[in-house]
Every structure is written in C-alpha cells, then in structure tokens.
Design brief:
globular; transmembrane helix; transmembrane; membrane; two-stranded parallel ribbon; mainly alpha; 11 helices
C-alpha cells in the first residue's frame, strides 16, 4: 500500500526536518571572502609589490657591481606568507563574532575558515610555481635576481614540489595566525602573554639542549634528507594539529566585537 502525502503539509515540504550542520560549511567558506581585499586583494598587492622591489634591488646591485655579480636570492616570497598570516588573524578577529551572530556553530566556522585558507594557500602555491617558471625564462629578470626559484625549494622536487611546499607553508602560517587571534578571545591578555613567554622559554630550552648535546649536525642531516614533498607532508601534519587546537580553543572563545 502506497502513502501519498498532501503537498501542502509540512512533512511533504520538508519543513521542520533536521538539516546537517555541515550544510552551512559553504556559507562559512564564503564568509571569509565577504571583504575580497582581505584574502585576495591585499595578498596580491604584497606578492607583486615585494617581487618588484626585489627585482629592482637586483638590477641596482648589478649596476653597482658594474658587471655580473652572480645570482642573488631574496626572501621576497615570504612577504605574502606573513601578510596572509596577518589577514587570517584579522579574519578570525572580525568574522568570528559575525559568524556567531548568524548562528553558525563553532565547528562549522573553523571548518569553513580552514577550507578558505586552504583555497588561498593553493592559489599562492600556484602563483609561486608560475613565478619560478617566469624567473627561469627571463634569467631572473635579466639580473639573476631570484625570489621564488630558490635551490632549497626546487633542487629535490622541481617546480611542482616547490609550489606544494610553498602552499603548505602558507596554510600553516595562516592557521597559526588564526590560532593566536582566537586564543586572544579565549584567555585574558595577561594569560596570553604568559603563554607567549612560556613558548619562548620552551624554545630557548630546546635550542640549549640541542646545542649542549651537539645535535645540530643530526638536525642538519635530517633537513638535508628531506625533499620538498616530504617536508610539505610534515608541514601539513602540523596544520592538522593546529586546526584541531583551533577548534579546541574556539569552543569556549567569547565572540565580542
């Protein structure tokens, strides 16, 4: 016997049925791009601006040297990573109260932010790879000035590996920036500084113990044995840990404006 529901009833229209909270993840993802300049415009300006400055300095050095001073490598690529880490912290500070006002769960907010940061990091990795190819094609913009075609990034895994590692490092920086902003909302300002100083002290102890036991050559050997792919894998493991930590912290964070 078949049962036909009246189309005007709430049961037939699906009214009152329970929706999965994950159905709002796409909306939480788009929330991070509500202000396009935050995640796209500003990072692009920093990316090309820092690159242009580095190339200009390369030509200047070449002119002062009066010939061929050899290849020069800069850290201009880091500028975008630091900018995105700051923008991730800014996003956590400004979109978290907005997300709570829209009745997003904290889990959905963290997941949406993670996916948005992953998309931005993938874009950065793609731009990084294109920049390497452009620097190779132009011999460092005719000044042997390299900001992306860095040997320690490309020598073991080529351009794809370098792009993957760049994207992974960018995602890690963004999740760490997100963490500190959320932690600020979770604990008092005094406790925040106690945690910062505690981490600095812990890092100092690790450095001192490593130096005392003469472990630095082993650390160097381990780093030298890593390819861009394997190092990206370690970084992505760190990202998963920080993401879980972010969710643990944000569960009791106060969404004040």
């Amino acid at each position: 016997m078949s049962i036909t529901l009246d189309p005007t009833t709430p049961e037939a229209q699906g009214v009152g049925t329970r929706r999965s909270s994950f159905a709002r993840v796409p909306a939480a993802f788009r929330l991070q791009f509500t202000v396009p300049s935050a995640m796209i415009g500003v990072p692009l300006v920093v990316f090309f601006g820092a690159w242009a400055v580095a190339v200009g300095i390369g030509h200047w050095v070449r002119y002062l040297a009066g010939g061929d001073p050899g290849p020069g490598y800069t850290g201009a690529a880091q500028a975008t990573v630091w900018a995105l880490a700051f923008m991730a912290a800014y996003s956590a500070s400004h979109t978290f109260p907005f997300a709570m006002a829209l009745s997003y769960s904290r889990r959905v907010f963290v997941l949406g932010a993670f996916l948005a940061f992953a998309a931005v990091s993938a874009g950065f990795g793609a731009l990084f790879s294109i920049a390497i190819l452009l620097e190779r094609a132009t011999n460092g913009f005719w000044a042997e000035s390299y900001s992306f075609d860095l040997p320690f990034m490309t020598q073991n895994a080529g351009v794809p590996g370098a792009g993957l590692l760049a994207g992974a490092l960018c995602l890690a920086a963004m999740m760490v920036g997100f963490f500190w902003s959320i932690l600020y909302r979770r604990v008092s300002l005094l406790l925040l500084w106690v945690i910062i100083l505690g981490l600095v002290a812990l890092l100092a102890v690790v450095v001192m113990v490593t130096t005392q036991n003469e472990w630095w050559p082993h650390v160097g050997d381990w780093l030298a044995a890593q390819s861009a792919y394997s190092f990206a894998g370690w970084v992505l493991l760190l990202v998963l840990g920080v993401t879980a930590l972010n969710y643990g912290v944000i569960r009791r964070a106060v969404p004040t404006v």
